[in-house]
Design goal:
Oligomer: single chain
Strand order of the largest sheet: 3-2-1-4-5-6-7
Order of helices and strands: EHEHEHEHEHEHHHE
Structural class: alpha/beta
Helix content: 40-55%
Largest sheet: 7 strands, parallel
Shape: globular
Distance between the termini: 25 Å
Number of strands: 7
């Protein structure tokens, strides 16, 4: 299927690895010109080179912390009029809420709620004027099924979800569609590092931890980042203009509900 977005321009955040990288790759395969961002310059440049070699797409790497005003300004200077915005940022650490300070909470809300909103505010009026815009926020399956140890992530991402629910319906008539992608377990560096930590405390190997995680999922496996990227690209496509304000779970069926 031709997604109808060849020649469009996209900003993809946290794109040096994992789900952000997979989303950037999928968009590049559709002929989208990319500005990709992450904090680590070396990993980001390596990813940009891989995407260029695989797709022939134009890819500009802008290293910096997207959660800061300076980081956002640098990305927006490189792509001031994007047609597509993919918001993404690493989640805050796990733990017991009794140990989190106000500063910890503010950092989590800045990264996982206020930064996406700031980027949306910067680009949405241009999308409305051009009568095309696609915004995808990569959040978490914990928005629908909170994870007790991830209280900061649960709270910050739920706040973004509520905001998007209202905004998406205000701009849909202008062919600007905003949706959220909620990943469950995908085979990313973060899942691997979590497996190493859990293995150390449970007497198992990381491979056994991952195998147990896969076995308990209805799909019998964890997700492949590439399939997440394809889902993101579709939500960014010209064919997704009637998908508005949705929270799409990609979790292999782990969230058990007849309503999705």
């Amino acid at each position: 299927m031709d997604l109808g977005i060849g020649g469009k321009r996209a900003i993809v955040c946290a794109a040096s690895k994992g789900l952000g990288r997979a989303s950037a790759m999928a968009l590049a395969h559709e002929g989208v010109s990319l500005v990709i961002n992450a904090r680590g310059a070396a990993a980001l440049e390596e990813t940009a080179g891989v995407i260029r070699a695989a797709t022939g797409a134009s890819v500009m790497a802008v290293a910096g912390d997207i959660t800061t005003e300076a980081g956002r300004a640098a990305v927006l200077a490189a792509c001031p009029e994007p047609d597509i915005l993919v918001n993404n940022a690493g989640g805050p650490p796990a733990g017991d809420f009794r140990h989190w300070s106000r500063e910890d909470w503010i950092k989590a809300v800045d990264a996982n709620m206020l930064t996406p909103i700031a980027l949306i505010r910067a680009v949405i009026d241009g999308m409305i004027a051009r009568r095309f815009g696609r915004i995808v926020n990569i959040t978490s399956a914990s928005v629908k099924s909170p994870i007790p140890s991830l209280g900061m992530s649960n709270g910050a991402r739920a706040g973004l979800t509520g905001f998007i629910g209202g905004l998406a319906r205000q701009v849909a008539r202008h062919n600007v569609c905003i949706n959220n992608l909620l990943p469950g377990p995908f085979l990313t560096d973060r899942l691997r590092s979590n497996a190493v930590e859990l293995a150390a405390s449970s007497g198992r190997t990381p491979e056994q931890v991952l195998a147990d995680r896969a076995r308990t999922n209805p799909a019998g496996r964890v997700g492949d980042p590439e399939e997440f990227g394809f889902a993101c690209a579709f939500l960014c496509s010209a064919h997704a203009g009637y998908i508005v304000g949705q929270n799409l779970l990609l979790d292999g069926g782990a969230y058990n509900s007849s309503l999705g």
